Amino acid sequence: MPTYRFNVNGKPVAVDAPADTPLLWVLRERLGLTGPKYGCGVGACRACTSHLDGKEFQPCTVAVSECNGRKITTIEGLADGDELHPVQQAWLDEDVAQCGFCQPGQIMAAAALLKTTKTPTDAEIDAIENVCRCGTYCRIRDAIKRASAAM
Ligand code: FES
Ligand code: FES
């Protein structure tokens, strides 16, 4: 089995796995990072949203072989030590989560949006495709605006 080497949340990782193993399985099952959730496995629900080389991606749709030498950040690596990322803090301040299942992916999508768009419009926020079955979209919008003001 080939060995793939990449960086996850600031730490080098080496994983032996079949080339076509979805990265989400490696993150959750091999590395114990259960923040990225499994919902659909086909890039539709976005519950697994994380960052690849600083941009949002869905690790259920990317094979481990495509990650060699790359940098991955999951929700577990978003905070700076004990200091929450402004998006995480805003999520707490706005009490966004209901069941919580979709929220790691929502936060990672919001953090990626704010990297490229400092002050997103309602339309840009609404263009986030992450699904929330509990319907927390209004509070997500408020939290993104709060984080934007704080950053
Ligand atoms: S699990 Fe649904 S997009 Fe990855
Ligand atoms: S908070 Fe329950 S699915 Fe979003």
From TrEMBL:
UniProt keyword Nuclease present: no
Domain 2Fe-2S ferredoxin-type: 2-78
GO MF assignments: 2 iron, 2 sulfur cluster binding; metal ion binding; oxidoreductase activity
Signal peptide feature range: none
Domain of life where this protein originates: Bacteria
Key words of the record: 2Fe-2S, Iron, Iron-sulfur, Metal-binding
One Pfam family recorded for the sequence: Fer2
SUPFAM superfamilies on file: 2Fe-2S ferredoxin-like, CO dehydrogenase ISP C-domain like
Protein name from the UniProt record: Isoquinoline 1-oxidoreductase, alpha subunit
Lineage summary: Bacteria, Bacillati, Actinomycetota, Actinomycetes, Pseudonocardiales
